[in-house]
Amino acid sequence: MDHAHWTGAQIIDLMLLVVDVTKGIQTQTAECLVIGEITCDHMIVVLNKTDFVEPSKRENHISKVTKKLHLTLEATKFAGAPVVAVAAKPGGPDAPESEQSIDLHALVEVLSRHLFVPQRSGEGSFLYAVDHCFPIRGQGTVMTGTVLRGSVQVNDSVEIPFLKTTKKVKSMQMFHQPVQQASQGDRVGICVAQFDAKLVERCLVCAPGGLPSITAGIIQVYKIPYHKSPCTTGSKFHITIGHETVMAKTTFFGCEQPPLSANTFDVSRSYCFQEQMLESAGKLTKASSVAQPSSVESSVVSGSQTQYALLEFEKPVICAANSLVIGARLDIDAYIQYCVCLNTCRIAFHGVLLHSSEDLEYQKSFLPQLKVYKLKTKEGVVERIQDEKTVIGRGLFKRETKIQSFLGLTVKLSSGELGIIEGAFGTSGKFRVNIPDGLRMETQDQLKSSKKKGKTKEGETSESEHSSIKITMTFKRYVFDPEKKLVQ
Asked: What is the pTM of this model?
C-alpha cells in the first residue's frame, strides 16, 4: 500500500477491506484498516479467494478467519462490521472467462443493506481533488476527480496551484452526462482551456486564491498504536497532506488544557516540549543530563493532554486549512533494525492541520511565535553563609557559564528559604544568593556547624557535605526564542 492509496482514501464514505482468506491479516491489511479508521466510518470486510481452500475444509476455515477478524475489529470503530466470503475470480486472473464467481450475490446483498446517502453541502470555497488528466483535441484538457468542498459551475474560473495558472471551466460531465454544476461529493470531469496534461498526475484545484503553499504547519496529532517505533522529536517522516507526500522534520509538544475550540491552535498559550509523542494515557517523563550531572532537563507531560506536532517541510506544500495529515515511515526497510519485528505498520500518526506559515523564512517569522518550552532544573549546594541574608553557593554553574543570564532568578534552599541569584563569586562558577526574608536561625546554625567540620579520614564523606543545604533552580527555556531567555 503506497501514499497514492492514502490520498485517495480521503474521498470515500464506505470502505471494502479485502482480505486473502488463505493468509488472513497481513501488514498491508493492517495499514488499510488504519487508513480506514482515519478517513471513514463505515466498512465491509470481504474474504476473497475462497476457491483456494479445499471444499471439505472451506466452511471451517472461513469461520476461523472470520472470528479472528471480528476480534481484531473489536478494538476499532468498525466493531461488528459484516464479513462476506467470496471468490471474485476462481482460478485466478488466468482462469477462463467461463469460470463463475462464488457468492458475489451475498456481497451485493450486504452492500445494498449498508449503502447510504451521505450529507453533502455546496457551501465553502471550491476544492477539487484531481486523480487523472488528459487532453481532448479541439476541446481542451479534462481533469477527473472528486469535489471535496463547495461547488463549481460552467464558466467559473478555477486555479491549478501546482501550475500557478487559472483556467475557465468550459464544460463538465458526470457519468458521461453533461452538467452545469457540481457540488461536494460529486465525481466529475471538468474540461478547461488547453494545458499540458502530462504535467499533472494528482493535484488539487480550487477557487482562485483558495489554496496556500505552506512551508511549516502545526497539527493536533494522534499516534497510531500499531506503529511500534517511538516517534521522537527531530525525526523525519513522510507526510501525506492533500495530494502530496513530502518529508518533514517533527517537533512534538503538548498542553494539558483543551483547545478553546475545535480545529484551532492558540499561539498565545505555552506548550510543553516533548522528546517523543505519547503512546497512551499515563505519564511520560523524559529526563537527560545536560552539561553536568547537577543540571537536569525534563519534559513531564500527562497522557491525557492534547498533543501537537510542528512539521517543517523540505519543500512547500499546497494544501487547505484543516487538511487531514498522515505521517509515515515509508523507508521502514532502511531502519528495520529499530523495529520490533518485520511486520511493522509504517503509518506512525495522523492529525489535522490547524496553523501554518507560507513564509520561506518561517524560522525567523513563524517559529518565534510558538511558546514551546523545556522545563529545566539545576541543583547546587550552599558552600557557606556570608551573613544572615546572603549565602555563597557552588555546583549550579560551570566555570565557563555566563551567570549574567541567570541574575534575578529565584532559587529554593532545601531548608525552605527562597533566594535570588545576585551574581558571580569569583571565577570558579560559585555564586552569591540573596535571601530577602533572611535565613532561619536553624538554617544559620546548620551552616555554621557544617563549616567547622571537615573530613576525618581520607576517602570518607565529610560532615559538611553530608549535612549541606541544596539549592534548586527551576526555569523554562523557550525552544524557538531567538534570544534564549530564561523564564520562571
From this structure: 0.81
